[in-house]
Specification:
6 helices
Length: about 170
Amino acid sequence: MSLTPATERARVGQSWRSRPGRVRPQRPRVSQPRTIALASAGGLAFWVVNFAISLTPIAAEYRSALSIDYVPMLLEALVGGMVIGLCVAYLLQRFFDKIPPTSPVLKALVLSGAALLAVTVVLEAPAKLIATSPPDMRHFLIGLLFNGLRILALALAIGTMYTRPVEDRET
């Protein structure tokens, strides 16, 4: 009885992936210290812009209309900036070659734009448009503007600090 090639490989413990001559594609390396450094820079930029925005009269009116306390808002912005920064920094390193623009700053802007879209759809829209009656479009747009500015600062900080590892650079 003759065995098919797949059956023969299974009998000897080989998978189709471990055939001689087959090269397994390398995943881009994601450095944990580098991810934390990039996320810290992005989170700090996010928080600084949030602090600057919080000093404006529009932000004071926004906070009072939505009953947001000042100090907890600053702490939440720091944590939120770090979480978004970790996501953007990790994805920038992991999928650097698969994101269309050529500049690391533009790549970080693309990823941060996706984060802004996710934050808007998951957090802002339900809180301002669905949970209130009538929908509060003015405060939704103000929150969207604030988030856009904060996430833009995060992207610029991460994209500016990002440098490709030596083994990835073309000479």
